[in-house]
Amino acid sequence: MVGEDDVVIEHPNRDKAASKTTKAIVVLLMLVSAALVTIVTVGGWDTLQGAKPLQIAYILIYLLIAYYIARWRSGMLPVAAALAIVLLIFAAVAGPEWFTRDKEGFTDPTIDEGTLGLLTLILVPVQALLIAFAMQGFSQQWSVEVERHPDGTTRAATA
User: Fold this and answer.
1) Distance between CA atoms of residues 45 and 49, nearest Å
2) Residues near 47 by Cβ (< 8 Å), separated by ≥ 6?
3) Is residue 2 part of a domain?
4) Quick one: which of 2, 33, 4 has its CA closest to 134?
């Protein structure tokens, strides 16, 4: 009788080049997003009102999700896509507002308003790419498992 300890669990979809590439792109896009939000947050710290906790939370959550996706946790992909949708909307709305700060009475941020506006607008296509690649990764079924027994038999299962 074969013991449970002799069973080897394999994830065949994780070995595919497309899956590895998608995972790398998703992790890279999440790290780039976190870096852009960090730069905008630090550069505009004195001028941001009420958004500071949300931006810090986004940075930390994106870094945490990138870590889990790097470890093949495909359940984080839809979460990443959902958060990217929200961030895309915020960036699309907030980006142009940085350019309108050249009037009298506005506090000057640490980094030039135009640069912060550009970085905020760059978040829009980055988030669109993140959504697309996260959904592609989810459709690649990284969680599919195959049990390999010492006698050569296999049994497919999904996690």
Assistant:
1) 9
2) 101, 106, 107, 108, 109
3) no
4) 33
Q: Which domain holds residue 61?
A: 8-158
DSSP 23-36: HHHHHHHHHHHHHH
User: Would residue 107 count as lying in a domain?
Assistant: yes
pLDDT tens-digit series, residues 73-117: 889 999 999 999 999 999 999 888 888 876 776 777 778 888 999
* Cβ 18 vs Cβ 157: under 8 Å: no
**Domain count across the chain:** 1
Q: In whole angstroms, what is the distance from residue 10 CA to residue 24 CA?
A: 20
| 153 part of a folded domain | yes
The reported pTM is 0.84
Helical H runs in the chain? Answer: 17-43, 52-70, 76-99, 113-139
Domain presence at residue 20: yes
